[in-house]
Amino acid sequence: xxxxxxxxxxxxxxxxxxxxxxxxxxxxxxxxxxxxxxxxxxxxxxxxxxxxxxxxxxxxxxxxxxxxxxxxxxxxxxxxxxxxxxxxxxxxxxxxxxxxxxxxxxxxxxxxxxxxxxxxxxxxxxxxxxxxxxxxxxxxxxxxxxxxxxxxxxxxxxxxxxxxxxxxxxxxxxxxxx
Length: 178
Description:
The chain is an alpha+beta fold. The chain has helices spanning 20-50, 64-90, 147-152, and strands at 5-7, 93-95, 108-113, 118-124, 131-134, 137-143, 160-163, 170-177.
C-alpha cells in the first residue's frame, strides 16, 4: 500500500482527488474556522463593552469597566489561541497510515473500550475536544498532550492500553489506524 504525505493548503480544491484523510483535515479546519470566528466576535464585543463610555467607573467600588477589560483580554487571548490552532491544522502533514505504522499526530484511530464501545479519535497537535460527524463516523479530536493522546502516541494496530486507576480505569484496544 502506498502512503500519501502532503501538506494541506488552500490550493487543494478538487475533493474527488483528495484522500479521506485530506478531506477530514479540511473538515476539521472548517470547524476550527467557525470556532475562531465565534471567538473573534466575542473578543470584539467584549472590547466594545470595555471601552463603552457607560462603563466609566462612577466611584472606586464601580468595577464594571475593570471586569469588562479583563473579559476583553481573555476573549482576545482565546481568539489568538484559536488562530494558532487553526494555523497548526493548516500545516499538518497528511499521511494515510498503514497497519504497521506507529500512531503519530495526524492519525485517525479506531479504538474500542472495555464495554465494546467503538470510538474514532483524530490525534492532533491541538484543539482537543472538538467533536463532529464526518462521512458516517463520529470523530473526536484529541490533542497529543491529553491523557488519551499520550497513551496513543507510538502504539500500533492491535495494541491495548489503560488510562486511569481503580474504578476510574478504562481499557482500550486499537482496532484501526487511518
